[in-house]
Amino acid sequence: MESTFARSPAVTVLLLAVALVWISPFAWLVITAFDPQANGQLGGAHGVGLDNFLAAVSGSSGQQFINSMIISIGTATLTVLIATAAAYPLSRIDIPGKNVLLWSLVLLRMMPEVGVIVPVFFAAKTVQGLNAQGMIVSMTVLNIPFALLLLKNFFDSVPIELEESAYIEGASLWQIVWYVVVPLSRSGLAVVWFFTFTGAWNAFLLPLIFARTDTAFPMSVGLYAAFGQYGSIQYGFLAAYSIVYAFPAVVVYFLLRRNLNTGFAGVGVKG
């Protein structure tokens, strides 16, 4: 019965129609990106060329790509380092009220970003941090609570007997963390790094407030600023810019895919 239903021509046509609906916008995006004379209308390309992509990776657009990479990689790496250093003691030391502290931080982080942007802005302005470094530090602070919660749960899953054996063999605390705990928690570190990277890559409000010029914008703000920047919308440029903007996150996913698949299975919340 199920096999007959799956092979039904009506079902096949319906699935093809759904696939066409999902694929059409991306197909239009790709065609427009390679069309030097794109006008935003549906239809075939007026020509084929790489002019739009060259414009999307050069000048201020190219600088925005570099800014996004610096901010995203810096935020993800700094978040993982700080969260690791804080999560390991929370996992191994019986600190009174540590769960209350941890969940309090998470609840504070659940506040809308708009609700904390004003104090964050004035704090950064006071220390002259309205730049890429300030964005990295600010987004790291905002990402620490969830990273701390996730990494603590991963560290909880590492058998403490392995650390005790390493200690008996003469390993120091740093050697135990680096050679025992970190390798066994690699999937968890990959999950936290990936989510922090994509969150920083897609961040819009905080970079919009912190950055002041086109060359200081990351790509998330640059894409917004490009609409009507030259008096008219350049559809080919915007399409190419969108593809370039999406490319790094896709590449990072495939590079970390094996660890992410394992890490997602290990994500849990323990009391």
The main sheet comes to: none
Can you count the helices?
13
At CATH level 3, the topology of the largest domain is MetI-like fold
State the order of secondary-structure elements, H for helix, E for strand. Answer: HHHHHHHHHHHHH
- The total count of strands amounts to 0
Q: For this structure, what is the CATH class of the largest domain? A: Mainly Alpha
Beta-strand content: under 5%
SS-derived structural category: mainly alpha
Mean pLDDT: 81
Distance between the termini: 46 Å
pLDDT < 50 runs, ≥5 residues? 264-271
Q: How much helix is in the residues?
A: over 70%
Q: Name the CATH superfamily classification of the largest domain.
A: MetI-like
| Integer tally of domains | 2
Radius of gyration: 23 Å
Question: What form results from the Cα inertia axes?
Answer: globular
Assign the CATH architecture of the largest domain: Orthogonal Bundle
InterPro entries: BP-dep_ABC_trans_perm, MetI-like, MetI-like_sf
Pfam family, one: BPD_transp_1
Domain ABC transmembrane type-1: 65-256
Transmembrane segments: 12-34, 65-88, 100-124, 130-151, 191-213, 233-256
Q: What can you see in these coordinates?
A:
Pfam families: BPD_transp_1 (PF00528). This is Carbohydrate ABC transporter permease. The chain is an all-alpha fold and about 270 residues long. It folds into 2 domains: about 1-35, no CATH class; about 75-215 and about 245-265, MetI-like (MetI-like fold, Orthogonal Bundle), CATH 1.10.3720.10. The chain has helices spanning about 1-5, 10-35, 50-55, 60-90, 100-110, 115-125, 130-155, 160-170, 175-185, 185-200, 205-210, 220-225, 235-265. The chain starts with a helix and ends in a 5-residue tail after the last helix. Mean pLDDT is about 80; it is low at about 265-270.
